[in-house]
Each structure stands twice: as structure tokens, then as C-alpha cells.
Amino acid sequence: MAYAVVRVEGLSATVRALEGMGIEVMDLRNAMAKIATQSAQIIQAHAPVGETGRLRADVRGNRAKAKAVVSAGRTSVPYAGPINYGWKAHHIRAAMFMQSADARMQFLAPLILEAEINRLLVARGLA
After folding, report:
1. Which residues, 6 or more positions from 14, have their beta carbon under 8 angstroms from its beta carbon?
2. Distance in angstroms (rounded) separating the CA atoms of residues 11 and 7
3. Is 3 helix (H, G, I), strand (E, B) or coil?
4. What is the pLDDT at residue 39?
């Protein structure tokens, strides 16, 4: 299985500050889901397409409370990891499609988080 994780520096401190204002970490699930969905769409666009297209179709984002994780591969698509990272013994070159979202999400993830945090602050009458 191949994974791509979006990490935002300072998120832990921001979450603690928000909790101090009465906003729960669970409220950030929507923001994390948006980030994961956006990342998954970028990764799908870069995923190699074979005869069946199952690898591209299997890229999916999660809905966690404090992180955005996109994964590809499971029992029906066991080759996701070797395709992404390569497998020298079998002459499979690394496609690195899971890392394709990194550059774009580096700028988009903080914007999505900021918009969601601002929405939560306004909804609670704190901004």
C-alpha cells in the first residue's frame, strides 16, 4: 500500500489554541477531508493507468480529525506500492505518483485549513 500524508507545521499549537477557545478537534474533520480529497484528485491525475484502471480508481482520502491521509492499494490492488516506489528486482521504475500532490498541497492545505478555521470561529461568534 502507498500513502501520502499532508503535514502542516504548527497545526498542533493551532489545535490547542482552538480548543482553548472552545472549538473541538473533531470540528476540523471537514477541513482534513477537503485536504485529503483535493490531494487524492491530484494523485489520481498522476497515477499510471493500466488495462483496468484499478490503481487510479483506488486512490482515496480519509476523514480523520487531525490529519489528511491519502492511500492507494489494498488486497485487490496489491501492486500500488511497487508501482509508486519501484521494485528494482522486477525492473519496475518508481512512478512516485503518490508524491505528486506534495508541491500543490504545500500551498493549498494551509489555505483550506485557514478558511475552515475562520468559518468555525464565525459560527461560534468568536470572530
Report:
1. 113, 117
2. 8
3. strand
4. 93
pLDDT digits (tens, 9 = 90+) for 60-114: 998 777 788 899 988 889 999 999 999 999 999 999 999 888 888 888 998 998 8
> DSSP letters of 58-89?
H-EE---SS-EEEEE--TT-TTHHHHHH-BGG
Q: Which candidate, 86, 80, 78, 101, places its Cα nearest to that of 4?
A: 101
62 grid coordinates? 480519509
Tell me the one-letter amino acid at 30: N
Task: Give the CA angle between residues 49, 103, 18 to the nearest 5°.
Answer: 120
Cell readout for 67 is: 490529519
What span, in angstroms and rounded, lies between the C-alpha atoms of 43 and 75? 20
Question: What type of residue sits at position 4?
Answer: A
What residues pair up with 68 in beta bridges, in sequence order?
6
Cβ contacts of residue 125 below 8 Å, gap of 6+?
none
Q: What is the dihedral of CA 8, 12, 15, 20, to 10 degrees?
A: -150
Length of the chain: 127
